[in-house]
Amino acid sequence: MSGDRVYPDEPAGPFEAPPLSFEDREGRGIEIRPYPADADGESGEDEFEALIEMYTAFDPEDRAQGIPPSRESDVRSWLETILGDGGYNVVAWDGETVAGHATLVPDGDAYELAIFVLQAYQGAGIGTHLMEALLGHGAVNGVDRVWLTVERWNRAAVGLYKKVGFETSDAESFELEMTAQLADPA
Amino acid sequence: MNVLLGIGGSDDSLRALEDTVERARAAGDDLTVAVVENPRSDRTPEEVEDRVRAVLADAGLDADVRRVEGDAGSRLVAIAEDEGFDMIALGGGETSPMGKINLGSIAQFVLLNSHVSVKLVR
User: What interface predicted TM-score (ipTM) does this complex get?
Assistant: First the structure.
């Protein structure tokens, strides 16, 4: 977790910036929008509550390295922290229901990435779109270096990260550390 | 219980110190504090040892404090096994900006190699 991470030479992307929409493999119309929705950094109470609802419905089996927290009060304070100043977020919507959320949290001159897809929406291609939309959103806002950690047994997640351009930078821990260097916006 | 606390100066190891000293006082454990070398820690072993002695003095707990040089994980396991400790206590991981728990390399080594019970303090 030190500042001397190695980043790939090959850039990831460029990716299309949100808002964007697509049909998932189950035939549901999914829309991905930045969060907060407007440039003033304001987001509606309803959108925040919809996010809370996704995380309180989250299957504890899908928690990773202690997040998301399980109690609603802990979810609220955790979300307030990661949605705070300086980060970038995108949310996948199925109508008014949150299907997934991906976030870049500032860490020095880089950003830590995490992505969460609600169980009922997994395996339908939403994770890939959400990752690409987040990286596209980050790139147009000047994000350059992104890192993450993932439990090494989580093959689905590791495969997704590799597919969008992450490479393993540290394999000596229980958790793999992966990094990406974002291409300039298209 | 005969407890060996390993502390290298990371933030989680300092929390483990407070917690383990409190627990030792409440339970009447015999505590030994091993100040180890953690290359990832910004604090020097001298600073860590001063901190350990201060926390022990505050708690009014008498504990053996020693400096351990060399590879921290393997030295802790060797000391615990050779000297018949009942438990090794360690910091339970650092938290990333995102809030993810990441276990340190010393804790990982000890967990996988120790034949003595290991307690990770959160």
Answer: 0.84
